[in-house]
């Protein structure tokens, strides 16, 4: 009888100990920066009521929601005629009341409304949790993946935006990744659309110009024409999307061009204020005003943020922006928010490609005590207990077996240090400390080990 080989659903992954240690290094780094700036952790359930999720991501987003069948006899309220009808959406709404969360933002909005009497505004929270999307799996796109979000709600201050840029700078500085932080504003994009006489086509315009780096200006203009813009409008757009110079030079030129528009001047003032704040914050990463940056245009109402790695060709590794009325969808209007999200999977790929993972991120164990059995084994157990009390992750090899096998175990787990206590070492009250990276070994007293391996 053949046994089917076990497998996992497409678009999901197993992570080895090495991968998990490296992922935890990323999560720990991001978490430490979030907390440094006063963001507090929350968690929300993996599943939400479908009434919470549906209608928040658009028609396409709704199609990507993983629905969960009701418990028990979920077909009890469905008759045979309903089953014969070719209407999956209608049927699923009757047999599914819950779904896996699609992102962390909508559950956060639900959380704020549900717990509004228990939290103080402005409310600064972070979440590092998995999300699920019934998308078509492909390279770099998964059905289950982690998001690392930080948001502050209940404050209109642009200091929040500047602080999020500082957080991005600090995260990637700690990870050793050189980045470019791109910045734009929804109001500026609205002003540009109004300037060229197509305020109603802001989405069409931004979708096209967002591709400038990929397809070039000629192809962008062709797409604009296909989207219904006339030659005069496309001509008026050219000086804007071709703006060059420093951020201040771009803002000065924009101030002239958008002075007659409704939203443009406000967007320029917001960007100027954010850049003035960041000038006080000692941010080392390059901050670039990018007028083609749109991201989730319909979602953002003010600042738009995107972070790209400077030394690797890859999409954004972090992004965010200002959104008004986050909680209005749940009946609590007027609560503005701004947030940023870090893509752990893409950050992993960047660190891997640039070989930037620290050597000690490969293993959580720092020291392996070799096991010779008998009294030497007892000495190793006592030493391991002492090292753990010192905060040093330590293992004792469980079996009295060949030294070669125990060294191979340390190598396989990339444990950097091995301690050997033989009969002679035990009699003299010393041990041999072996560096598994360079092969050097020295006789030391047990109490010296923490200082030797630091």
Task: Give a quick rundown of the structure.
The chain has 454 residues and is α+β, with helices and mostly antiparallel strands. It contains 18 helices and 16 strands.
Observed structural traits:
single chain; 454 residues; eight-stranded mixed beta sheet; 18 helices; globular
Order of the strands making up the biggest sheet = 1-5-6-11-10-9-7-8
Q: Could you tell me how far the N terminus lies from the C terminus, measured between alpha carbons in angstroms?
A: 55 Å
**Named CATH architecture of the largest domain:** 2-Layer Sandwich
Specify the overall morphology. globular
* CATH class designation of the largest domain: Alpha Beta
Instruction: Give the averaged pLDDT, no decimals.
Output: 91
Largest β sheet strand count, sense and barrel closure: 8 strands, mixed
DSSP summary: helix tally: 18
Supply the helix-strand structural class: alpha+beta
Q: Note poorly predicted spans.
A: none
The CATH superfamily of the largest domain turns out to be Bira Bifunctional Protein, Domain 2
Protein model, in words:
- With 454 residues, this protein is an alpha+beta fold.
- The protein contains 18 helices and 16 strands.
- The chain starts with 16 loop residues before the first helix and ends with a helix.
- A hairpin with a 5-residue loop joins strand 15 (431-435) and strand 16.
- The protein folds into three domains: 17-43 and 103-127 and 137-353, BirA Bifunctional Protein, domain 2; 47-100, no CATH class; 363-452, Anticodon-binding domain (Rossmann fold).
- The longest helix has 20 residues, at 17-36.
- An eight-stranded mixed sheet has the order 1-5-6-11-10-9-7-8. The protein has a five-stranded mixed sheet with strand order 13-12-14-15-16, covered by helices on one side.
- Helices cover 41% and strands 18% of the residues.
- Helix 1 packs across helix 14 and helix 8 (186-195) packs antiparallel against helix 13 (264-278).
